[in-house]
Amino acid sequence: MRRPVVGIIGNSYLINDQYPAHAGGTMNSEAIAEVSGCLPLLVPSDPRLVSVAELLEVCDGFLLTGGRPNVHPEEYGEAETPAHGAFDRARDAVALPLVRACVARGQPFFGVCRGFQEVNVAMGGTLYPEIRDLPGRMNHRMPPDGTLEEKFALRHKVRFCDGGVFHRLMGAREVMTNTLHGQGIKTPGQRIVIDGHAPDGTPEAIYVADAPGFTLSVQWHPEWQAGQDPVSRPLFEAFGAAVRAWAGGRQPWALSA
């Protein structure tokens, strides 16, 4: 029996500042294969190459990954500024309508970091270009120096809503996470439920209210050591269960489950 397919939404890069490539972090594929129990399939996120309709047909679920480029502010009605950083308009053109289609169909997706922000924007929300510049906010960005282990180290707590879906899934009201992002939710989109916050008030865990499928998304990077981390593992296991249910034509994963 074949494994269900998870489309991993990749990013565009220039190798040696010259050679264009689509790529995704190895740890994303490892988390999908080893913890979710699904087949990872890297998606070249460019509407010239793929369509949302084709992706919905080929893949059973989607991992919306992190990445250095940010969602372009035009997607939420704001002007571009230097603080908004680099962009990947091709990924915007694939990921945002893909999120809306999955919400409508009940097809599962899991948003991570930029993917978390994409879900909010797809549902009509807005983003702060640089949350560390806001009064009372901490610097959530990846440390510029150090080993990979140091950059992905646990750095702050996330507190979930009492009795909420993340609380129930984790079996804990409060967890420790890494943090490697510069932007964050300014206004939540329609039906976006913020179910967890960092100590400085930054939204860290969301889902789409009344969606028939799995829509959990987190601002941190759970793909790091997903098989061993007690916070990451239940997220990828639950996502895998939702993808298998969709592939098998069974009842979509529900928040009340």
TrEMBL record:
Gene3D superfamilies: 3.40.50.880. SUPFAM superfamilies: Class I glutamine amidotransferase-like (SSF52317). Its EC number is 3.5.1.94. It comes from the Bacteria. GO terms for cellular component: cytosol. Signal peptide: none annotated. Belongs to the peptidase C26 family. This is gamma-glutamyl-gamma-aminobutyrate hydrolase. It comes from Roseinatronobacter thiooxidans.
